[in-house]
Every structure is written in C-alpha cells, then in structure tokens.
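One thing: could you explain this record?
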Amino acid sequence: MIKDICLAKECIQHPETVNEYYERIPEVIHKLVSSCNTEACYDHVGYAPIPSREIVIQIIHQARRILFPGYFTQNRLDAVNLEYSLGQEATDLFQALARQIVLSIQHDCLRHKQPSAHCNDLGHGLALEFLQCLPNLRGILGKDIRATLEGDPAARSYDEVIFSYPGLFATTVYRMAHCLHRLGVPIIPRIMTQYAHSHTGIDIHPGATIGESFFIDHGTGVVIGETSEIGERVRLYQGVTLGALSLPRDAGEKLKNKKRHPTIEDDVIIYANSTILGGETVIGARSIIGGNVWLTESVPPDTKVMLKRPELVYIGSNHHRSTNHKKGD
C-alpha cells in the first residue's frame, strides 16, 4: 500500500515544471496572429458583426412554435390565450429576425464595399415580409403532413409526423429558408438549411424549388441541389441525390446562376439511393425511379426505370456458389 502511494507521489509535477508549458503559449498565439495577415487565414476581425448562428437556430424554433401552435411550447395553449401567445411569439420572432437580417445585409455591403445607409429599414421590411409568408407556409406544410400520412403506413398520426419525422423537419426549415432566399436575404437561409442537415442528414439548398405535398421518407443522405425543381406530390426515399454533373475547377464562377440540377415533375416517386444529375435532366410526371438507379438523361412521363435483378452469390454448405435470379426481370 505504502509503495503504491509513493509511486503515485512520484507522478505529481511541481508547479514550476508545469509553468514552463504555460510560458510557451504566447509563442503559439504570436504565430496565430501573424498568420491572420496571410491568404491562408479566413477570419472575421474588424468587420461589422456577422449574424449569430445560435440566434438563427432560435429563430427556426420560434417560427415552428408559430407554424405548429401548441406542439413546441412549454405552456398549454387554448382558445383563450392563443392570440396573445402567437402575438408574443410573432413579435419576438420579428425582433430577432430583423436584427439578424440587418447584420447579414451590413456584412454583405461591407464585403462588397457598398454603402449601407438603409440596411436597418431594409432588414425590418424583409423580416415583416417573412412574417407575412407564415400563414401561406402553414397551409403548404399541412399538405406536406397529409402527404406523409398518405405515403407512409408506419405513420400513426399527424402528431407523430410533426414531432418525430426528420423529413418534415427538414422540409419545414427548407420552406422557411426558401422564403428568405427569395427575398434576397444573405447567409441566413444557408445557416438554416445546414442546421437541418446536421440534425437529419437531409441537405436541401434553400434555392431549390419544391412544390406542395412533398414527402421525404426516412431521409438520411438525401441531397437536393440549388437549382433543382420539384413538382407537386413528389416522394423521395433515403439516399436520393438530385445533383449536378461533374464540374470544372472554376465552376463556382462559370456556372453560378445557371441550372445545374434536375427537374422532377408532379407525382414522381424516387426510391432509395438513386442519383439523378444534370440541369437538363427532366423526370416526367408520374414516373417511378427504382432504387440505386443512376440517371443523367431525361425520362418521359409515366415511365418506370429499374435496375435488372443482379446475380446473387451464396457461400455455404446448403447453397450453390451462385444463383442467377431472373424471375421478375
């Protein structure tokens, strides 16, 4: 026992020894500060304040409490206090969003060396326009919820869909962000959709156009690019990519504001892990794209696109080494 205690005491460092490490930290800080003056460093020192990611996330949840009254509040809502509660939430949302929009516009003006005299008025005006979008947005999300209930036998109720379906959460955040994107608000729409991406694995660019009654089932790994156009009553499964074809190194400038992602017409179903690429690719209405399909060309309406059944290989004492399943091809 005493021997163990003695060994433990040998491991205790003297304060002066530990201080030597602290004394070397300023040297590291000096190098970090010096590197801020090089092209290798991306910093935000000396600029106007940039929008707060944390506050933008709070805005998402404030807007959800308005869009789905009673679901994400701690206090019970009823007919007596509903108007007061929504009024308070909407006022708080307006104030927070207006401030973040003002910061985003000021930041953009400074970055592009433009005057920013009217940023405050513009930011508050855009925040009000967003609030005016909410009644229509609530109606569209109601159709998305009904599409989920109709398309997923596992969905037991609209409560379950609202509380727990990642596809609806990602779609809700996308629809908020798309509204701000159309209004020309910088930065904030991307912060919103990337927050949803980090929580659900569903990556929807706020610039994409998505029709009503949209349903993403499961959802993990879904990618919808900026210039994608999706019609009404479209259903996507996990792992679906609506992406761009192979891009050159300078694609950021050459292809900016050009259509790079596919168009999906009304009533299309795209099953798991399918990839559809290219701005000229159009999937015609009522078509079905099977799982694991790779498409870079258009498909006419009312078409099924499926892979042939692969050859399965069984290894074991009770099986032949390979079996080619042609039934149903």
Q: What stands out?
A: The chain has a mean pLDDT of 88. The longest strand covers residues 241-243. The CA atoms of residues 260 and 279 lie 4 Å apart.
